[in-house]
Each structure stands twice: as C-alpha cells, then as structure tokens.
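Predict the 3D structure for this chain.
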Amino acid sequence: MGGFIDMKIIPLPFTLVALTFLAGCSTTTPHRGFTGFTIIPPIADADPTRRHPVSFRVPTVMQVVRDGDLLAVNYMSLQATNILVGRKMVTGFMREENIYAGGTNHPVCMGFDGGNVFVSGDRVYYLSQNGNPQPGQNMTFESHISIFETDLPAQHLWEPQNRKLFRILWTRSFKETIRWRAA
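Done. Predicted structure below.
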C-alpha cells in the first residue's frame, strides 16, 4: 500500500520495559543542574596608586525620540579619550537615566557595563510604566554616564560602587527636553 508501513506489535515482558525506562533514572546520582553564578573575588594586588593611561570610547551626542508611549534613546557617536587607571584595576561604565516631568523625577535605568567601550545601542522605554509622563505632558530626559575603576571584576549582579576601591574617573551628562506633540 502506498505510503503505509505494515507494523506488528510484539508484546514485551513488563520487567524488561520497566528496566529500559528506568535505566536513565538513578536515585544515587546527585543532580548536576545549575548551581548559581560563581562569585568572583576582588583582585588582591589591584593598586589604584600606580596609574597608567587607558583609551576609552565615550559618547559625545545623545538623541532622544518620543513616539507615543515609546521613548528611544541613542548615543549617536563615540570618541576616544585617555584616562589614567590604577594597576590591575577593572574599569567600566555606569549609566544613570531619569525622566523629569511635572516636577517629579522618574528613574528609568541604572546599570553597569564592564570594559572600555561604551555600549551605544538603542534603548527603548515604555512611558506608561512606573508612572512615567503620559501623552500631553512635556518632559526632560537626563543621562549621566561615568567611567569608574574598581578591584571587583564584572559579574552577575555586579555592584562595584559598594567597594572600598571604587572611584569615578570621568563623567559626562546629557539633557534633552521632549515636547509633546498631538498626533
């Protein structure tokens, strides 16, 4: 018959089926699943007093575009700059972004990125979340970007600002007022 295979079902003893099915299941083998992120300790011989120049790529222009409930933020160009950094210190960027409207501050983002090149891709925010400005309301978007050094390597849930050897090395602030336009 075209396209069909003639199959016969052969009965197997229950114990053979049960042993085959349970062969991969063992109660004596410990589970080797995800055990969490490794905590990386601080760099023991990091020395902020012995300085050397490091090149960074930093943002020079911020563009903010509002489209209804969306706010798109882009840092359109980067330039090189040299900053003195401590020996074996870890560097990174700290970004703090806020929206001000009607006399109220609406924090939008606070985060850290390790390295020496600013991550400049588009960031999109939904204005209707967290009581952000609604249609019909003008607002100001502010961004503060800092380069820092620390003795703590980048890792999951990184909070380098809580370290004794945390230091801000460079800061640039951007501010743009966004006027609401009716559609």
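Strands lie at 47-67, 70-87, 90-101, 104-114, 123-126, 139-150, 167-178.
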